[in-house]
Amino acid sequence: MTRLFLTALTAAAFSQTSFAADAPAPAEKTTYNDHVAIIFRQRCGTCHNSTDKKGDIALDNYAGVMAGGSGGEIVTGGDLSASTLWNVITHESEPKMPPNADKIPQAELDVIKKWILGGVLEKGDSVAKIKVQKAMAKIEVSNARPATVAMPQTFFGEPLHVSPTTNAVTALTTSPWAPLAAVSGHQQISIWNTATLELLGVLPFPEGQPQILKFSRNGSVLLAGGGRGGASGKVVLFDVATGERQVEVGDEYDVVLAADLSPDQTLIALGGPKKMLRVYSTATGELVHEKKKHTDWITAIEFSPDGVLLASGDRSNGVVVWESHSGQEFYPLNGHQGAITDISWRPDSNVVATASEDGTIRLWEMNNGTQVKSTSSHGGVAAMDYIRDGRMVTTGRDSKVRLWDAEGKQVREFAGMTDLGLEVAFDAETERVLGGDWTGLVRVWSAADGKELGQLSTGPRPAAERLAKVQELIPAAEKAAAETAAALAVVTKPITDREAVAKVKLDEANAVAAKAQEATAAKAAAEKVLAEKTAAVAAAEQALIAARAAYEKAILDKDLASRNTAPAQTAVAQAGEVEKAAAEAAAKVKSEADALAAAAKPNEAEQKALTAAQAAAKSAADLATGLKSQTERLKKVIEGLQKPAEGQQAAN
Q: In this protein, which residues make up the domain named Cytochrome C Planctomycete-type (predicted)?
């Protein structure tokens, strides 16, 4: 049996060996060690080696390649368009490598391409590193309120960087459909509730300083663009409900200064100091269009609300309108004399507004690309934003924020910023105006009356610190509430006392009036009896005419009826006297009641004191209540932050 078993095993092994020999050999893997290293060392090793790491990039070893440079990773497994190294050695992006020379031979490019698409393997037995790009589905373009309005479902997290000072407000935006604002910060984005002015958490942006923030047209996505000057730039899309990153595009060699997401959420346009307008697909992350029309830094970009057009502006006053999906030039818009600082489309997509350092806001219609209006403001306009109802907000060098109606007339000016105005936004859900300046503060005003309601910061403090500050304010707020309530009582008491006296007199007047009504009713009853008697006289007269034969009897009846009316007439006269006396008494009492009621009303000084006391009492009470409520919410935030840590300790 043993020999039979061994024979069977031998036959099986021979059979498998023969089959393997007949099968095609597996495709050779392209690896760094076997294929790519020699190319990098020969073509790039002079400048990019472990000793001389130009741009902080070393290509002579696998670890150095994967570490990337000062701008982040330079190769992305499975994705050529996201691999900065590939873009520069194929001369598709600046800076072209090798500099001032032709591209490396195509055969060598093919090897590097195969290596990247294969997952940037180090050696034959390495595991492929393929980065999966999350795809964003296309949505229907609509200017209507979405069925579900996106709001953060949880606290996004504590501030990642806490500094005693704040940095300038480089980006600011509000959701079109929810009371939400996003504010730039150092390597982070803070999300605020514009109704309560509470921090809803912080989104990390390790790419650097956010230079542009925009909510999608339906409010479900937050776009953030930025980076590090002269080193790197990127655009990231965040899910507003969860705070998760959905899409990343760019990998620029300089900071992204302008960007936007198309209304159907299929395209991302970006630009910056490289003067190149690039449009990427959100589904694949691939570059769709690349336009080098601008002659200076691209500083502003925005898709039209219907998604048909895309406008871009630069630092040398150039403005170009493009067809979004074809990338073809639509109109050049010439007229500004200074750098373009912002672009915003009117909600109907028929007019685009451009703001400039030349101090003007110009409106351009899209039928012929002609200018239809120019308004001078701020001595240099830094930012503007169309509101969904056609109004507009602006800010600039004069440290003011202004609200304009749909016809371009100034509605209100908001003062209070202590330095250059840099960013502006309007929250249509709460009718509040937000303005950010060079000091790092975002002030919030009521659009209705211009009153400043509070401030947001580019450097929010941790929840525990905010809770302590709120708790410190509560005693003073409660004391102020009690004092104003007492002052209100002092002002109110003499008025309420007079009102009580007037009420008593008014009750007496009502009682007399009731008696007068009774007298009127009695008079009416007497008049009814008189009418009946008069009718009897008339009937007797008719009987006299009709019955001449009974003339004498009718005469007697008429005399009798006539005599019977006398008491009724007397009763009517007496009832009239009673009614007159009652009416005079009622009028007299009513006059006295009216005089007392008038005297009970507060005079002008008392009314002013009463109004001021009521307002002060309400404001103080609201402040105390709000601070207590904020304390409870902050406690919950801290408890939520502590639970994961407690769970980790328990696990340890």
A: 44-100
Name the token pair of 381. 């306009």
Rg of the chain over all Cα atoms, to the nearest angstrom = 43
Q: Where are the domains of the chain?
A: 32-117, 254-463, 469-610
Least Cα distance to 360 among 347, 376, 337, 384 occurs for 376
Please tell me which of 330-334, 502-506, 535-539 the model is most confident about, judged by mean pLDDT: 330-334
Calpha distance 258→250 (Å, rounded): 12
Tell me: pLDDT of 350 over 60.
yes
pLDDT at 14 over 60: no
Rounded distance, CA 27 to CA 129, Å? 18
Domain 254-463 has CATH 2.40.50.100: no
Distance in angstroms (rounded) separating the CA atoms of residues 585 and 520: 13
Which residues, listed in sequence order, are joined to residue 237 by a DSSP beta bridge? 223, 247
In angstroms, the first-to-last Cα distance of the chain is 57
The model's pLDDT over 266-282, given as tens digits with 9 standing for 90+, comes to: 999 999 999 999 999 99
Residue 631 clears pLDDT 50, i.e. is over it: yes
Under a CB-based contact definition with an 8 Å cutoff, are residues 453 and 432 in contact?
A: yes
Q: How far apart are CA 652 and CA 650, in angstroms?
A: 5
Locate all alpha helices (DSSP H) within 391-462, ordered by sequence.
Answer: none
Whether pLDDT at 402 is above 90: yes
The token pair that represents 438 in the structure block: 């060079």
